[in-house]
Amino acid sequence: MFHLDEYIGLSITHPASFRKYLQERFISKVNLKNVYLINGEANPQQACEKLGELILQHPIDVALVGIGENGHLAFNDPRADFETEEPYIIVELDDACRQQQMNEGWFNSIDDVPQKAISMSIKQIMKSKNIICSVPDKRKAAAVKNCLENSVSNLCPASILQAHKNCIIYLDKDSASLLSH
User: For a tag site, which of 28, 116, 131, 135 has the least CB within 10 Å?
Assistant: First the structure.
């Protein structure tokens, strides 16, 4: 199992840590042979290089992803890099992404939300044999519409999922509410 994204500089004990979330809600409940988590407290470049080397040795069968309110895929915010061959990259989180994290209750203020993260790159996600994308909630309806009804664009990074041959997207009534058909 490879982790998609993690804030840089955030302790694993922080409620917003994705490592913490995955450990408590998934990893502790299943028997996985190999788990590769992003250590947001380590040197970011070294963490990217280490995970990059590992993921190239273990092709991904199934990627579990979502779509952010700004259309991000993992932490690849708008103007996402669709070209990098690096499996993991350091990204700047845009204001919309940071606001979403605060609005979800993970942080007390926008100033508390880290400005950088480590993310699996778009090309690495797209190398997955299968992608399952789950997108609940009304607040993501505009992003879902933009990602599924407009052309593929790095301005709406999750739109790249249109180009994957084995991608299934699960929406609820609210997240699908702005779709034309």
Answer: 28
Burial class from Cβ neighbours inside 10 Å (0-12, 13-18, 19+) for residue 137 reads: middle
Look at the pTM and tell me if it is higher than 0.85: yes
H runs (alpha helix) in the chain: 18-25, 44-57, 95-103, 122-126, 141-149
User: What digits encode the pLDDT tens for the residues 17-59?
Assistant: 999 999 999 999 999 989 999 999 999 999 999 999 999 999 9
CB atoms within 10 A of CB 108: 9
**Burial of residue 132 (number of CB atoms within 10 Å: 0-12, 13-18, 19+):** middle
CA distances from 55 to 72, 120, 121 (A): 21, 10, 12
Which H or E run includes 114? none
Q: Distance between CA 175 and CA 80 in Å, rounded?
A: 22
Asked if residues 22 and 37 have their Cβ atoms less than 8 Å apart, the reply is yes
Task: Answer for the pair 130, 61: CB distance below 8 angstroms, yes or no.
Answer: yes
Reported as a single tens digit per residue, the pLDDT across 114-123 is 999 999 999 9
